Amino acid sequence: MKKRLFTPGPISVPEDVLLEMAKPIIHHRTPEFLQIAQQAVEGLKYFFQTKNDVFIIAGSGTAAMEASVVNLLSPGDKALVISGGKFGERFVELIKTYNCEPVVIESGWGNPVDLRLIEDTLNNQPEIKAVFATLVETSTGTSYDIKGIGEIVSRKPETVFVVDGISGLGAVECRTDQWNIDALVSGSQKALSLPPGISFISISEKAWTKINNSKMPRYYLNLKKYKKAMEKFDFPFTMAVGLVVGLRKSLENIKQEGIENLWQIHRRRALAVKNAMASIGLNLFSKSPSDAVTAIVLPEGIDGEKFCSDMRKDFGMSVAGGQDKLKGKVIRISHFGYQDEFDTIAVIAGIELMLNKYGYKVEPGTGVREAMKVLFSI
Amino acid sequence: MKKRLFTPGPISVPEDVLLEMAKPIIHHRTPEFLQIAQQAVEGLKYFFQTKNDVFIIAGSGTAAMEASVVNLLSPGDKALVISGGKFGERFVELIKTYNCEPVVIESGWGNPVDLRLIEDTLNNQPEIKAVFATLVETSTGTSYDIKGIGEIVSRKPETVFVVDGISGLGAVECRTDQWNIDALVSGSQKALSLPPGISFISISEKAWTKINNSKMPRYYLNLKKYKKAMEKFDFPFTMAVGLVVGLRKSLENIKQEGIENLWQIHRRRALAVKNAMASIGLNLFSKSPSDAVTAIVLPEGIDGEKFCSDMRKDFGMSVAGGQDKLKGKVIRISHFGYQDEFDTIAVIAGIELMLNKYGYKVEPGTGVREAMKVLFSI
């Protein structure tokens, strides 16, 4: 059976990138590889829309999230976390683990955050050293107003702004420098269309001051080591060579497409799914739906876990179920990775078929028609 | 742009087969390779539904067609060709090239053949040494009654039955032994889901008598050389090693799926396209449409050549145009190769979109709906 991945990571990898990675492995301390690394880092700066340093870490997204915490904070520091789902909560856990004090603004799962609340909190607690937010909360398919939060934090000279961009970067608009993001975290297995295994973090000048003064113990994730090695486009530890080779190729493709185009493509796919679902009577979970991941609320009485496993079994389609409190209630579809408009049509057809199997009657093609109108402007 | 191949060969190759072929090349005269070849030949016998010899030729389908002519005929022999399109005509050209005399029954492009006409011709011209027919005529998407023709030829002890199964084998029912086919020709780039480059021919006992008595000059395609080498599962000339490795893998997949299932799958896809086209007012070209390839007549005034090139340019979808007298008038879609039900939906959506672009207004999703009903029995 043909496989189609719509999970919000891992995603399908384009053939040209797979082929690039299938080439014989080269040693990570050769001029040949360092040139590849240099090109990859330059590509990442475009992808991040930044002139700041961007580092590659051999580890998955959580490693880069952890790097932001252990480099920017010192034990005992107070940090504000904007949390509206599983990955906001992960920042809270990381901050507690390193004996810092999280101040949490809970927007509620699927809700946008109230910017005035952030401003008030920072005004009332000037000792807050960092603000942690999420570009796209994968667990709920929610987008946050990162630009708005960045403006607020930028007015606080002693506070840095950290963003988890793992699930959103490349899929939704995000401008590191213009939006005053001091540390932006991302991973390979999302809009970069790569296998999982490497992650990234950008660091602003303002953030470097924090890092240089931090008293947090750290070794593998010590960004000062990365900075020193990066002077020669090298890495402090053995790098995942194959993935960096794929990264360069993937970033080349992205540069050619243009980052604004990429955002536009994801916007259209997400709108297509939204309209398709509306036409068959299904709602999105989020009140501020992202263009990277869409969470769809299933009709009452349908078990989302079984729905997902049947989608995989019957149609070879991997869609994600709900996490934690959404388990069994929603299905989640990513719009990134190696997929195109006809894959969006395929997954909508698959959902229609599966709904019928579960007794929720849908005239086949109803959602597909609405999606086609959006995807191809007819 | 993501690529989707619906051309009637070459087709998309499954990832597991591509990976198998990406392995380091082994020498073609090693025990390791000869074992792979043995397994491939055994798989081919299942694919052909035969206990006869089946040979692999390093060359495309036309090489195996030529092998049938130069091995089974002697100069001056009379041979009957059932021709209803470009590939029937190719047999005529081959037969003439080798100084044999073709007797041609022209069914007319897209029409089935009248079996009584074949029977009468063989009765009236008992000197006819061989009958050449086509399982599926790719140029028109037409299926022929091979079983019926085989029954007629089997009653003539001095006449052998040769079938070009290149575009049909694996996609439509074909039973070499039960249907009295003395030589069946096939190629790698169709329902076997492999890249082009190797072809196959089965030879019955009755056909061996012809071959052993043939006075035709031949060397690379001399099947006696292949027979001798095959005793040790070897080849008389250097074999396309990588393709045979892929062939074994592909035949393994087919064995697992079951050949009858495979026929059923193609039948459903072809019916889905037929119903979809009917729902938007388009007819099939053939009066006896095959389940391997469907030829669709475009509305008056639409240039089929441009339509195909736009499908490729706009949607990354390769569909074939018409050949010879059908150039510009039809588009042709294969149902074989690495594609599934959702790809069938995709190509129908693509055709709907392209028709709209060309001013033939179709409510998007109309054909998709009909296809979904057939493909998923809802």
- Number of alpha- plus pi-helical segments of chain A: 13
The number of distinct structural domains of chain A comes to 2
CATH H-level superfamily title of the largest domain in chain A: Type I PLP-dependent aspartate aminotransferase-like (Major domain)
Helix content of chain A: 40-55%
Termini separation of chain A: 32 Å
Radius of gyration of chain A: 21 Å
Counting helices, strands and paired strands, the structural category of chain A is alpha/beta
- Biggest interface, residues from each chain: A-B, 30 and 30 residues
- What is the residue-mean pLDDT of chain A, rounded to a whole number? 96
Domain Aminotransferase class V (chains A, B): 26-323
GO molecular function (chains A, B): alanine-glyoxylate transaminase activity; L-serine-pyruvate transaminase activity; oxidoreductase activity
Enzyme class (chains A, B): oxidoreductase
Modified residues (N6-(pyridoxal phosphate)lysine) (chains A, B): 190
What can you see in these coordinates?
Two copies of one chain form a homodimer. By secondary structure, chain A is α/β, with parallel strands linked by helices. Chain A folds into two domains: 15-257, Type I PLP-dependent aspartate aminotransferase-like (Major domain) (Aspartate Aminotransferase, domain 2, 3-Layer(aba) Sandwich), CATH 3.40.640.10; 259-376, Alpha-Beta Complex (Aspartate Aminotransferase, domain 1). In chain A, 43% of the residues lie in helices and 16% in strands. Chain A has helices at 15-22, 31-48, 61-72, 86-97, 115-124, 146-154, 205-213, 223-230, 241-257, 259-279, 304-315, 341-357, 366-376, and strands at 4-5, 53-58, 78-83, 101-106, 128-134, 136-137, 142-143, 160-164, 183-187, 198-203, 293-297, 317-318, 320-321, 330-334. In chain A, the strands form four sheets. A seven-stranded mixed sheet of chain A has the order 2-10-9-8-5-3-4, with helices on both faces. In chain A, helix 1 runs antiparallel to helix 9 (241-257), helix 10 (259-279) runs antiparallel to helix 13 and helix 11 packs across helix 12 (341-357). The mean pLDDT of chain A is 96. Chain A binds chain B through residues 1-2, 4, 14, 22, 315-316, 338-343, 345-346, 349-350, 352-353, 356, 363-366, 368-369, 372-373, 376, 378, and chain B through 1-2, 4, 14, 22, 315-316, 338-343, 345-346, 349-350, 352-353, 356, 363-366, 368-369, 372-373, 376, 378.
